[in-house]
Amino acid sequence: MTQDNNPPLAAQQVFGPQAAVYATSKVHIRDDSLESVERMVDAAGGTNRYGWTLDLGTGAGFTAFPVAGVSDRIIASDVTEPMLRQAQRLGRERGIANLDLSQNAAETLPFADESVDLVTSRVSAHHFRDFEKALDETQRVLKPGGSLLMADSIAPEDSAITDWMNDIELRRDFSHIENRKISKIQELLTDRSFTVVENDYPRIYLRFNEWTARTKVSPEETEALHKEFMEAPAATREAFQVAPVHNDIAFSWPCWVFRAVKW
Ligand SMILES: C[S@@+](CC[C@H](N)C(=O)[O-])C[C@H]1O[C@@H](n2cnc3c(N)ncnc32)[C@H](O)[C@@H]1O
Fold this sequence. Notes:
Radius of gyration: 18 Å
Shape: globular
Largest sheet: 9 strands, mixed
Bound molecules: S-adenosylmethionine
Helix content: 25-40%
CATH superfamily: Vaccinia Virus protein VP39
């Protein structure tokens, strides 16, 4: 495993102690966004093959594992070392032999220019401290004709609803950086000579109690966040499908899964 010796980031402080919890998180192990990723790489059919794949913000590896099946070699990279240890353990348990690990930030990729065939990233980009730098780096390491396949929560185009979402996310997880509107991401991709060739719009279904427990939100802040959900404006509750269930709240974040080709 290659090492990053920089001082810890907020992401490392949040994800490090909770790595084992993320390794058993149902929504990370399998959800509609992962199914979209698998469909786009044709993980089941196996007609597409990729030489080198790089998975950014790999966490416990749940995206890297199926993509390993269509890659000659896959590098599961993450800034948080305990997460990589979970990916290593689970990868071994699943008998995945072509998985390598690299501890690095998505903003500084220790790989040569035009050396990677496919870059994947799922439910991580909203944590990247500098998303634009991560896109620059992805552009740099991808071969011409290579693909970026990204799945992440996104913000609705309505700015008031977007502000509510980012405020809630930040209070629940201080490593949260930003959920962006699709129009903004699209602009950043175009600026970097990426063309989006495939899209999917799954939702990420969550339960409030488990969601706040995963990042160890204090009881006081949990109560305050509960109130925010229940008292949010109708348009916000509708956008996130907020619904009380038993002693919990069901809600969902919109997600965008896209494959963009570097020309
Ligand atoms: C929700 S988890 C990822 C889930 C995983 N991709 C999956 O499919 O199950 C988010 C991960 O992003 C990582 N992360 C946050 N900021 C990062 C950065 N700037 N560079 C690389 N990884 C980062 C965290 O350490 C964490 O492991």
